[in-house]
């Protein structure tokens, strides 16, 4: 059987990795400034993480959600302590798409409305509804016959209100920093405006923190900077440092009932152990502070390079926007300089999503490499 080809692949075969480095089958060392789409938060194969997963699999790797799992409660408490989500509830699943799917479903159960409002250029995973948000010319398979997605320009509160006042929208879903879309950010005024409109029109406000959460921006969640309270927050990626785990944090105003949501794998013992160890390392190694410091260092260096139009993003969710398409530059960084970077919907932008353990010397390597390739 062959692989169903849905991705264009670079010709590199990683076989091992350590912290910010990846090694291929030919023994070549690569600097990983992409972390597999922002997944590697505490560095590849961190010893605390490896030990936690190893110990868990040797005792109890998995049992179903119909029994007590004290690790989930421990994780919920830890998330509450580290984030601005006091009093929220945790529901666990296994990926970002599943987190958003659950968030949208829950919103619809909560207020009995059926449409979704998303922002142009957003990306919420390959969900039946949210996939449409990646490209408003292609609305693919809405959740059901009545359900659909409305798209609005990021920042346009009047357009949001025009839609919400029709009283059909169950949820507004927003990335405070657009990842795949190209690092455009919402302003505080916009976020607070969304919160106000959602309250006024009985609509659930979902912050998609799948990519921006878990310390990547230097705050635990990107929305915290804007001083508002989403009703649901979706999480995944950096949460498991490679272990497939996701979840939603749910404001106490949204009531749970048996059977409302469900999953086979979500929140299993191994997933909890992986996530708990990620949080442990984030705290012990002060990685959110490191994200802020390394971000400042990066931006300072970036401002000196030629042909750069803008440095976008926040913390270690960054983009270098040039005045030309970057596909060849990215290939040269990979094959000549052995540096992994990412792309986005903006063809002129290189995405930088390194492990939060990155140091100045690694950032220096990127800028030396750019000097050679530009
Ligand atoms: N939401 C955002 C903001 C994302 O960036 C992504 C993936 O890139 C997703 C959701 C989907 O996550 P997953 O690929 O784990 O389904």
Structure, explained:
- With 374 residues, this protein is α/β, with parallel strands linked by helices.
- The chain has a domain of 236 residues: Aspartate Aminotransferase, domain 2, CATH 3.40.640.10.
- The protein contains ten helices and 14 strands.
- It has a seven-stranded mixed sheet with strand order 4-10-9-8-7-5-6, with helices on both faces. A four-stranded mixed sheet has the order 1-2-3-13. A three-stranded antiparallel sheet has the order 11-12-14, covered by helices on one side.
- α2 runs antiparallel to α7.
- It is globular and about 55 Å long.
- Pyridoxal-5'-phosphate binds next to α4.
- The site of pyridoxal-5'-phosphate (PLP) has 15 residues, from α4.
- Keywords: Aminotransferase, Pyridoxal phosphate, Transferase.
- GO terms for molecular function: identical protein binding; pyridoxal phosphate binding; transaminase activity.
- It holds the Pfam family Aminotran_3.
- Belongs to the class-III pyridoxal-phosphate-dependent aminotransferase family.
């Amino acid at each position: 059987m062959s692989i169903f080809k849905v991705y264009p692949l670079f010709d590199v075969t990683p076989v091992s990795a350590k912290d910010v480095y990846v090694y291929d089958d030919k023994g070549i060392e690569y600097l990983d400034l992409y972390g597999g789409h922002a997944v590697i938060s505490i560095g590849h194969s961190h010893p605390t993480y490896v030990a936690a997963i190893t110990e868990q699999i040797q005792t109890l790797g998995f049992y179903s959600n119909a029994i007590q799992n004290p690790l989930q409660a421990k994780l919920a408490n830890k998330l509450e302590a580290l984030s601005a989500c006091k009093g929220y509830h945790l529901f666990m699943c296994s990926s970002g798409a599943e987190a958003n799917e659950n968030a949208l479903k829950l919103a619809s159960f909560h207020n009995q409305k059926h449409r979704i409002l998303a922002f142009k250029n957003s990306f919420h995973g390959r969900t039946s509804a949210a996939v449409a948000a990646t490209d408003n010319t292609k609305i693919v398979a809405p959740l059901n016959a009545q359900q659909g997605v409305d798209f609005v320009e990021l920042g346009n509160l009047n357009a949001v209100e025009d839609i919400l006042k029709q009283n059909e929208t169950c949820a507004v879903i927003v990335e405070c920093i657009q990842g795949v879309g190209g690092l455009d950010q919402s302003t505080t005024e916009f976020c607070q405006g969304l919160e106000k409109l959602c309250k006024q029109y009985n609509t659930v406000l979902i912050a998609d923190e799948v990519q921006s959460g878990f310390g990547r921006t230097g705050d635990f969640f990107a929305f915290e900077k804007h001083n508002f309270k989403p009703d649901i927050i979706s999480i995944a990626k950096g949460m498991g440092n490679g272990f497939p785990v996701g979840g939603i944090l749910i404001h106490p105003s949204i009531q749970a009932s048996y059977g409302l949501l469900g999953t086979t794998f979500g929140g299993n013992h191994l997933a909890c152990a992986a996530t708990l160890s990620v949080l442990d390392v984030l705290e012990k190694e002060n990685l959110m502070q490191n994200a802020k410091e390394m971000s400042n260092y990066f931006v300072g260096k970036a401002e000196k390079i030629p042909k750069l139009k803008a440095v976008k993003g926040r913390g270690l969710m960054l983009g270098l926007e040039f005045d030309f398409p970057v596909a060849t530059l990215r290939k040269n960084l990979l094959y000549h300089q052995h540096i992994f970077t990412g792309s986005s919907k903006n063809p002129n932008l290189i995405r930088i999503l390194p492990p939060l353990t990155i140091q100045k010397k690694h950032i220096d390597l990127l800028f030396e490499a750019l000097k050679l390739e530009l």
